[in-house]
Structure formats: C-alpha cells, structure tokens
Amino acid sequence: MNEFALIKQYFHQQSTPDKGVILDKGDDCALLSPPIHQSLAVTTDTLVSGRHFLPEIDPFALGHRVLATNLSDLAAMGANPKWFNLALTLPNFDADWLKAFSQGLFNLASQFQCHLIGGDTTKGPLSITISAFGEVEASKALTRCAAQVGDDIYVSGTIGDAAAGLAAYTDKNFAAQRIVSEQSVMFLKQRFDLPQPRVSLGKKLLGIANAALDISDGLVADLNHICQRSELNAVIHCESLPLAQHHKDAVGFEQALVNALSGGDDYELCFTAPKAQRQTIKNIANDLHLPLTLIGEMLECAEGPQPTCSVLNKGRVQNLAKHGFQHF
Amino acid sequence: MNEFALIKQYFHQQSTPDKGVILDKGDDCALLSPPIHQSLAVTTDTLVSGRHFLPEIDPFALGHRVLATNLSDLAAMGANPKWFNLALTLPNFDADWLKAFSQGLFNLASQFQCHLIGGDTTKGPLSITISAFGEVEASKALTRCAAQVGDDIYVSGTIGDAAAGLAAYTDKNFAAQRIVSEQSVMFLKQRFDLPQPRVSLGKKLLGIANAALDISDGLVADLNHICQRSELNAVIHCESLPLAQHHKDAVGFEQALVNALSGGDDYELCFTAPKAQRQTIKNIANDLHLPLTLIGEMLECAEGPQPTCSVLNKGRVQNLAKHGFQHF
C-alpha cells in the first residue's frame, strides 16, 4: 500500500467539516482561516520509540499520548485546540497497528473538536511528531514568565502517578515489597497510558492565573522553568502534594513523594495565581470536578543566585540530591 | 549538555524580531499573530536518515534541504513563508554537526525572512520534521485541483538533475561509460544537495496559474496528482523537457530523460495556466532569470478511466514500463 492509500484509509476518517479549514489533506499545504481577534498558539512534540514510550506500547495508547502531550502544551497556555498535523515514521505497514493508533488519536481529537489538517508519512524507526494549533487572546495567554511575588502555586489532579505507572510496566521489583491490588496497578498504568490534557482548566484560568505550564519532566524541574523565566524563587511543601491513594498504596508514601516531585509524564498543570483568586480557583475546581491543590508560594529572588524551586519537608529544606532523589 | 542549553546555543541565534511573533521559543507554545486578510498555509515534511538522505550527508546541506522541502510546499501554493518549527531527533550530541546543520538551516531561512518559532529536540535515530507556515490569499492559492481543459503545463528550471546528483553519490557505475567533467559532477551534486525552493515564482503565479505543485517524487508521478485532483488528463512531450547540459553530458540523453520524467528531489514547480497567459509567463521567467518551459497540455478525461498523465516521445506514446523506465 502506498503513502496516499495509507493516509486515505486511516487518517481521512475524521472529516467533520471545520469552518476554519479552507483546504486540508491532499494538497501541498493545508489552508487555514486563522481566528481574527485571537493569537495562534503553536506547539510541537516528538515521541521516539524506546525513548518516550516502550516499543511494545498499545498503539491506541500511543495515538492518544502523542496528541495528549501536544494538547497539554496548548492547555498550559490557556489556548483552545483547533487543528493538528501528524508526521508519522513507521518501520513497516501494519494495518491493525494503524487502525488502533488512529482510533486512539481521533478519540482524543474529537473530545476537543481538534482537526487533523495534514502531515507526512515516512518509512524509518518508529517516531511521531505532532504540531498542534490553538487560539488564545494574546494578552491573557498563560506564559511561564509572568509569575508574581506572593503568588500561590497550584497543581491540578494528583501527581507522580504516571511515574509509578511506568514502573509498573518496567520495574521487575515493582510491588516486590508490598501487596499491591490489581485496581491500584490498573489505575497507575492508565494514568501513564492515557494522560488527560487539562484543556478546560487552562481556558478557565485565563485572567485568573499569572503563569502556568504542564508537568512533563517532573514538578520541581518544570517549576524551575517558571522560576527562571519569572526571575523568582518558589517554595513548595511536601505535605501539600496531592498523592493518589492508589499511588501511596502501591509504592508507599516516601516513593510516592519522590514520584510526585520528580516523575514526569503526568501532564497535570502547575500554575501560579494571586492569593485574591483563592475562592475563584476553588469554584473552578468544583465546576471541573478536578482537584486544584495549593502547594506553595512564589518568593522574591535576590540578585546573584539562580532563581530556583525549594522543597520543604515538615518545614525543613529537602536536599534533593541526597535521600535518593537521584532524578535531578 | 541538556536540551535547553543545546537549543539556546544553536537555535536562538536567529532572533531577528518579527512583528507577527508575540512569544517564541522557551514557553509551552509559540504565540503568533496571524495575518488578518490572508490564510495560513501549513505544511509538514519529515526526513529520515538512510531513507531521505545518506547518513554521511554534509550537515549544512541537510539543514538546507529539510527547510527547502517545506518552503517548496509553500511555494507550490503561492504562499509567502513566515515561520517554521523544528523537531530534531539526534542519536548523540555533536557540536560540529549541530553548528553546520543550524547554519544550513538559518542560511536558507534568512533568504526568505522565515523565522524559527519553536520545536522539540529528542534523542533517537536521526530524523527531522519541520512544519512551515506561510500566508496567502485563499481565493488565489495554487491548488492541485483547479487545472482547466486546455491549460498549458509548465515546469520551472531544469529537471532530473537531482536524481543524477544522487547517482553521482551512490552509483559506482556513474560515469563508467563516459568521461564526465568535474564541473558536471559538481553541478549535479549541488542540485541534489541544495535545492532552491521556488518561492518568488509561486508568489508571481498567483492569479496567473490554475494549478501547481512541487516536483518531489518525479514529474510524471507528481503531475498525476494534478490529473486526479482536477479530473483531467495530461499529455507531456519528451522533446520539450528542460534538461541541463551538464546533466546530458554526464549521463547521456536517454538517461537524462528518464531522470527528468521519474527522478525526484528537484523541487522545481510544475504548474498549469491558460494559453492566454503565455506572454505573462514569459515575462515572469525573464524577471526571475528562471526558465519556465511549456511541456504539455491538460486534456478532457472521459468518464470511467482514471485521469492520467501520458508521455509522448516524438509523437508516440511512451510506454514507461518498457524501455528501462523502471522507476514507475
């Protein structure tokens, strides 16, 4: 089967007309009618087999994940997803694989009315690059550089679950030291396999939050980007971190804390907001049925040292390099 | 060196401010201010090592080529290049390689004031995906589906050179049967290494040409896309094909013809235009110092058979399957 037949069979299925698309798949370019009073938010993520996912990954989960990582970047700007393109490099043609992959992809895309507008398929080591496009009012967009002194720091959902889910797949000693229920394992694997981009939250935070990003590399590593771009320090409290019960049951409190601080792949949002917004943020959490947990505060940074994120454990600074926090 | 330092060192160098970019590299997304009365043309191309380029390729040429293939798609729509993003998967960190690659990339980008707005760097088998963004008036954009009965068919520049250039790199028997000057070999290799996207031509053809595409898979294969999308037949004349003297000198007339009909990677434009535009097209060729050669005509297609492109050689239909045209 050649490239054109392949594209047609698996990737033309989602052809809901979209007013903003003048011309899509099948020409040299897609032609889009961009929003008039909004900016276009553009993001790109590549997932490489063996690096970002296990070669034996369920293709449905892979299709979901590669779009989810991009939609999560849009969510972190408060942008409304509109379109995406897909560059798919495949080692061979496997109809079952392509069917499941495209189902995972379009299942998530249709949740957000996000339309595939084009791309490229090539032969080579399995790798996928998606660029996603959203719209947002530029003056309200949630950047990394606008955190303010005294801002509360929040995270959405529970964190560290995906790191434990990955360990459940790859670590032979997972659950060696305790009895772990099947439900807990399933919960953690699903949190790794099918991350939920927090698009609705991002949109609701426009005009409320000062800075935001999505947690893909680990809470402390990612929060450090807000620190550096905003030129402020951050302090977060271990006791406040939202840990899922299944997570603590499966790996114990200590390891769950390590996962929450340094585990990637959760795709929850971390954001900062003025203290005056606390009630509004509680209301948003209620509306979305999504926990939004206050975990720390942005602080002034003296001239000289690099702005940084500190972790307090029962009031004492946690030295992350010791105590097995070796991910940093 | 981590991802952020790597990006900063090699890819922040081109920081000419662009009024349309509100926020670029370093946040979750780039924020673009799209053109108000124009459409946004979007294209994506992936190049995989060993598939689209030789692993030992000069990294400067690779940087040029990967952007050129995308700009060529924009040119084929008549779009004006504005921005691009870059997803770069590298097996290891090689400072010299990255320096040369980024120079090839930015050298071409700056020719067209096309700005890097973001991307992703990952570890894995060498592969590069670029998405490029341009602006064009939607009603005038050059598509594949708007060719008309009686349209002239043109190609820009000379064609088949890149296929001969690739052979000069890879085919041990290249030049075994004839004396080939060093100049000819250099000309052909350069045509393969450094394809020139025909951006100025594409823009000048707006309102003049009816249909267009760029030749990446070979003239006949690509022209077939115009036939199928426009539901018309095409006939082209071997005698008319523009062959470079160096090309004929190096491989002989017969092989040059094969290369011109079926060799890819030229990134010249193929377009159709009403006969009434002949003088205008001559003027464009003069203005751009770029040959634009009339090679055939679009014809009605009876219902039933697939629309197709026929090749006439001295008035007789060339059966491409015979006579060594084995590329089809």
UniProtKB/TrEMBL annotation, chains A, B:
GO terms for molecular function: ATP binding; magnesium ion binding; thiamine-phosphate kinase activity. GO terms for biological process: thiamine biosynthetic process; thiamine diphosphate biosynthetic process. Keywords: ATP-binding, Kinase, Magnesium, Metal-binding, Nucleotide-binding, Thiamine biosynthesis, Transferase. The keyword Nucleotide-binding applies. ATP binds at residues 119-120, 144, 216. Mg(2+) 3 binds at residues 28, 73, 214. It catalyses: thiamine phosphate + ATP = thiamine diphosphate + ADP. Pfam families: AIRS, AIRS_C. Mg(2+) 1 binds at residues 44-45, 120. Residues 148-300 form the PurM-like C-terminal domain. Pathway: Cofactor biosynthesis; thiamine diphosphate biosynthesis; thiamine diphosphate from thiamine phosphate: step 1/1. It comes from the Bacteria. Mg(2+) 5 binds at residue 217. InterPro entries: PurM-like_C_dom, PurM-like_C_sf, PurM-like_N, PurM-like_N_sf, ThiL-like. Belongs to the thiamine-monophosphate kinase family. This is Thiamine-monophosphate kinase. It comes from Saccharobesus litoralis. The gene is thiL.
